[in-house]
Write a sequence for this structure.
């Protein structure tokens, strides 16, 4: 015990908090169950990746068909959850709640109404994982329609997972290219070993608590701007730069803006990573796809990417800090017409597969997660003198 010891935390940097067969995050490569992320982004659909994560192997053609139809069949929401989403219009308007908060409560409610809610067997967990994967896009779509004051768009059974998600938010049938870009972004976001939200879900499930509870906690952890909330924060930062310097993308003005941010010790959102100190494998993949969409959308969208690239160049040359996946994600979702507060909920729509895989892995190999801390508080005292 020492009253003078520091309260500064290490954030468990570099500490292995457990074993997993789901994912490996390393500067050399990002791997989901043995498959490298560039390979998956190029050759697999999100549904295939979801199957891989949840069930543990690459699906056969018939396994994939069954899995896809199970997801399509589970998209609709129970009436009380729809009523809850509708009732949140004012809270969302006044921003006492943001979409991540509403999604968190909706997932918790889905647990209250799920017939397997108190069953954490392997079979029940897998059923719940599929249902949550199918339902979360509908929560996001309905919520956006509530925000926009429009009638709810029903899920379209003829559309794949990513295309339907985008359709329910924007109310327009996405082009094949846009559907593909969202699909790849879901693959990139699906899993990332013991990141903060996944670790949260494992801590909760290690008490033998249920899947919906663990996912509800994980959503709360993902919301923060140091984690999943960074995709929204990155886009807000680019909007702020644009607002301050105007539309010309003048390099010297961008540099001055950034120097001021450095002086103010401001964190630039969408940059840096606890593990990837030399760049995030996912960022380049999404940047390329997003920029191609932007080029087709017109000069304003293309200029957003040019601004982002200039910010990135300055950050890399002056600070040696690289963009993480949230930086291109913010710009990509923006040029596709997705409202900023839905960027992190879309991250949830992808990461639900990774969380659920970890919850199932934890339940199947459980030991309570209970570390210790180092006490740095006051020396022992007597209450009465
Ligand atoms: N902008 C400016 N400086 C930075 C940034 C940044 N984005 N990231 C790291 N640094 C600096 C930091 O100030 C520190 O400098 P110094 O040693 O002089 O004090 C040094 O780099 C080490 O940073 P750190 O905060 O100790 O690193 P960390 O491993 O604890 O944090 C991080 C990682 C992701 C929280 C951090 O880089 C950050 O806050 N980034 C901005 C938020 C963000 O983009 N989060 C998304 C994370 S990745 C995907 C996801 O989870 O969604």
């Amino acid at each position: 015990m020492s009253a003078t010891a520091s309260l500064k935390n290490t954030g468990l940097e570099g500490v292995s908090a457990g074993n997993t067969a789901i994912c490996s995050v390393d500067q050399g490569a990002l791997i989901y169950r043995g498959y490298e992320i560039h390979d998956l982004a190029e050759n697999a659909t999100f549904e295939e990746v979801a199957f891989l994560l949840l069930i543990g192997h690459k699906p056969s053609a018939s396994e994939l068909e069954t899995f896809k139809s199970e997801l399509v069949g589970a998209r609709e929401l129970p009436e009380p959850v729809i009523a809850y989403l509708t009732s949140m219009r004012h809270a969302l308007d006044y921003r006492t709640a943001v979409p991540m908060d509403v999604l968190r409560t909706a997932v918790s409610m889905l647990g209250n109404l799920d017939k397997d809610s108190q069953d954490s067997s392997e079979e029940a967990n897998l059923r719940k994982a599929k249902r949550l994967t199918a339902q979360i896009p509908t929560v996001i779509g309905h919520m956006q329609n509530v925000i926009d004051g429009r009638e709810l768009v029903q899920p379209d059974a003829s559309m794949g997972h990513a295309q339907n998600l985008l359709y329910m938010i924007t109310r327009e049938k996405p082009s094949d290219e846009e559907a593909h870009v969202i699909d790849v972004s879901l693959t990139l976001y699906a899993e990332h070993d013991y990141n903060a939200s996944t670790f949260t879900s494992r801590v909760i499930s290690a008490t033998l608590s249920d899947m919906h509870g663990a996912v509800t906690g994980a959503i709360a952890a993902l919301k923060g701007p140091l984690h999943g909330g960074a995709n929204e924060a990155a886009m807000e930062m680019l909007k702020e730069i644009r607002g301050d310097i105007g539309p010309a993308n003048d390099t010297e003005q961008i540099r001055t803006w950034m120097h001021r941010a450095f002086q103010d010790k401001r964190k630039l959102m969408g940059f840096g990573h606890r593990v990837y100190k030399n760049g995030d494998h996912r960022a380049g993949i999404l940047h390329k796809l997003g920029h191609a969409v932007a080029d087709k959308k017109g000069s304003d969208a293309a200029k957003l990417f040019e601004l982002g690239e200039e910010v990135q160049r300055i950050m890399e040359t002056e600070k040696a800090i690289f963009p993480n996946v949230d930086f291109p994600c913010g710009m990509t979702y923006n040029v596709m017409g997705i409202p900023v507060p839905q960027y992190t909920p879309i991250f949830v729509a992808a990461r639900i597969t990774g969380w659920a895989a970890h919850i199932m892995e934890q339940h199947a190999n459980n030991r309570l997660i209970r570390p210790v801390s180092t006490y740095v508080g006051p020396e022992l005292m007597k209450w009465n003198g």
Remarks:
- The chain has two domains: 23-225+342-364, 230-335.
- DSSP finds 17 helices and three strands in the chain.
- The first strand starts at residue 23 and ends at 25.
